Amino acid sequence: MSWTDRPPSWLPPLPPPNKGRALIVLGWILVGGTFVYIFIMSYLGGTHTLLTLVPLLLGLLCLIIGLLRRDSRER
Predict the structure, then answer these.
(1) Measured between alpha carbons, how far is 30 from 49 in angstroms, rounded to an integer?
(2) Which of 11, 31, 38, 62 is the most exposed place for a label (fewest CB within 10 A)?
(3) How far is CA 75 from CA 5, 12, 51, 71, in A?
(4) pTM
(5) Confidence band, pLDDT 50/70/90 cuts, at residue 60
């Protein structure tokens, strides 16, 4: 490691490299879990309510926000 690999002391610290990743993972878990629930309930002959769509919408919202946060850092 060379002395040029370290940032100068007068620069502020860099932001964390995985900004938005937690929201993306949470979004995938919510969307995937909702689809698994819908498929299992459909196979078993159960009924769905509109409340089934709430975790799906929250998951999509988390995915969109996480992807926008990740994209805005790279510009």
Answers:
(1) 17
(2) 11
(3) 22, 18, 38, 7
(4) 0.71
(5) very high
Residues 20 and 65 sit within 8 Å (Cβ to Cβ) = yes
Looking at 10-52, list the stretches that DSSP marks H as alpha helix, in order from N- to C-terminal side. 21-44
Domains identified in the chain, total number: 1
Domain that holds residue 53: 49-74
As a 3-state breakdown, the chain gives helix, strand, coil percent values, each rounded to 5, of 70, 0, 30
Mean residue pLDDT across the chain: 86
Regarding predicted confidence, which is higher, 15 or 67? Answer: 67
Domain presence at residue 61: yes
Backbone phi and psi for residue 16, each to the nearest 5 degrees, phi listed first = -60, 145
Residue 15 has which token pair? 């932001």
- pLDDT at residue 75 tops 60: no
Residue 23 forms part of a structural domain: no
